[in-house]
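Support request, please re-run this one:
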Amino acid sequence: MSDDAERGPIKRVVIVGGGTAGWMTAAAMARLCAGGVAVTLIESDEIGTVGVGEATIPTLRTFNAMLGIDEDDFLRATQGTFKLGIEFVGWGEIGERYLHPFGTYGRESQAIRFHQFWLALRQDRRFAKEAGRLDDYNITASAAHLGRFARPAGDPTTVLSTLGYAFHLDAGLYARYLRRHAEDRGIRRVEGCIVDVQRGARADMIAAVTLKDGRVIDGDLFIDCSGFRGLLIEDCLKTGYEDWSRWLPCDRAVAVPCRSVEPPRPYTRATADAAGWRWRIPLQHRVGNGYVYASAHIDDAEAERTLIAGLDGEPLAAPRRLSFTAGRRRRAWVGNVVAIGLAGGFIEPLESTSIHLIQTGIARLLALFPDRDFAQPETDQYNRMTALEYEQVRDFIILHYKATARDDTPFWRRCRAMEIPDTLAAKIALFRSSGRVFRQDDDLFTLDSWVAVMLGQNIMPDGHDPLVDALPIEGTRRFLAHLRDIVGRTAAAMPRHADFIAHHCRSAWP
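Re-run finished. Output below.
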């Protein structure tokens, strides 16, 4: 740009929309306020937020730590519980269940991944029964099965150091918590409904937004956190949307909280149903429930009846419905507008990635934070990284649907028969051959996560890493038996999940 008046550092940031995405962005941007940047968040009390995502993955701990948030205080404020993984019920076969735990399986030895030792023992007819379950070698999985929890140990030589955890939380309370954090550090909140958008000097730039009461809010950088609508990124800039419904056919959800009837379990449950799946997320004060489904295979009324019939306790509110199309914006950053959260795309909440995708969108923006000239290389890099991350998450979610033996309903027969992305097909083929998994360093899901879901969905390798066979089988047997014993004893000694919450972070609310 030739006009020097349009160069220089960003001085005004405008966040359009509140909710989890808006207030996570505001909390992270609050550090800019100390440097003289004015950060304004616009949200309207007339516009509700989706607010059905209440399960997270371990990366949220990094975000909260970056903000300097005390974990116990955060859990009390959000009615939170701990999450050690996700239990999948009825995905591979009706009646089957498996756990996708956080944390790691066993430990590597001589640069060989642990699950390869387990496969080798399991595939040896003499010792197959000795191998046991792979979960027996994962402290996170073992604790989840027992309903226990403790924070990881600091000593990296102990098995407890390999435990991984995340949270179940009330998303609305989390947004409120972050709002207090952000406003205390200089974020300005403006209540109002946007009725008009003024374009800038360039076709891909926004100059200001106008509220219903006539106020005009101008800015240098606009962050679109307006939800599925994409008020700036789509309504105004027409960036386009990449539709992934051919792989992810669920396009509706209905959610309802219910009364707790038991102490909260330290894991999310995802139960496959006739036309999709149902979630169960235990908080301190209630249980969050939902049914994610394909409208081509069940109508809204029947989906709601199915959800209500499967509740553990009394419903505490009227069911809420939402519609979506799985996919992402073709470009998440255009000109001076960056889309964060649902405004940038949506992948159904099967693996609890929605809040994580907000977090990484924010992190990328801060890493590539622009001047007012909005140089194209930074924008292009942001879009490349965002597209790759969404595609990697997409493939992991598709795996759950594709790798099924269910043929009891048209929905599941469609999932079994569908063509899948080449990137996922190659991963499945490699694992089926030798149990190997290769991932890019920036892939959200770890090797252990891929192993958990591949095996859980009954993709059993034909072989294993031949390097294991170069080691004495007796040594492998002793190695596994020792680890299994340590993991079992450590998990059994941990406090019960409910007791840990009561001692450290029980909410004062009824």
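The chain has three domains: 9-80+170-241+326-374, 85-164+393-498, 252-323. The radius of gyration is 24 Å.
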